[in-house]
Design brief:
With about 100 residues, the protein is an alpha+beta fold. It has a single domain (about 5-100), classed as Winged helix-like DNA-binding domain superfamily/Winged helix DNA-binding domain (Arc Repressor Mutant, subunit A, Orthogonal Bundle). The protein contains 5 helices and 2 strands; from the N terminus they run αααββαα. The chain has helices at about 5-20, 25-30, 40-50, 75-85, 90-100, and strands at about 55-65, 65-75. It has a two-stranded antiparallel ribbon with strand order 1-2. Strand 1 and strand 2 (about 65-75) form a beta hairpin. The longest helix is centred in the N-terminal third of the chain and has 16 residues, at about 5-20. Pfam families: PadR. This is PadR family transcriptional regulator. It comes from Caproicibacterium argilliputei. InterPro entries: ArsR-like_HTH (IPR011991), Metal_resp_DNA-bind_regulator (IPR052509), Tscrpt_reg_PadR_N (IPR005149), WH-like_DNA-bd_sf (IPR036388), WH_DNA-bd_sf (IPR036390).
């Protein structure tokens, strides 16, 4: 997959994972691994970028004696997911066009 396209898709997948509730890095990787491959070293820059843009917020909480950083989706993140979903029909038409031209 094209690097730029994958970057945008990863952002959406991370936000979609957070729509189920606050989560932490390793769990997010596990949650999205069913549809796209991402490593923790790739995930954290995405999370920092999403936090800087206001799409996610963070907080720390103790878990089994360790402090864990949690990420929570915010309104701009929800809007970004909705915009992606709103584009789905257009993307389907583009894929159909490309497939038709390829035949």
């Amino acid at each position: 997959m094209d690097v730029q396209r994958k970057k945008g898709i990863l952002d959406i997948c991370v936000l979609a994972a957070l729509m189920h509730g606050p989560s932490y890095g390793y769990r997010i990787v596990s949650d999205i691994s069913c549809c796209i491959t991402v490593s923790e070293s790739t995930l954290y820059p995405i999370l920092r970028r999403l936090e800087a843009s206001g799409c996610v917020s963070t907080y720390k909480q103790e878990h089994n004696g360790r402090t864990r950083k949690y990420y929570k989706i915010e309104t701009p993140g929800l809007q970004k997911v909705q915009e992606f979903l709103d584009e789905a029909d257009e993307m389907k038409r583009i894929y159909a066009f490309v497939e038709g031209a390829h035949l």
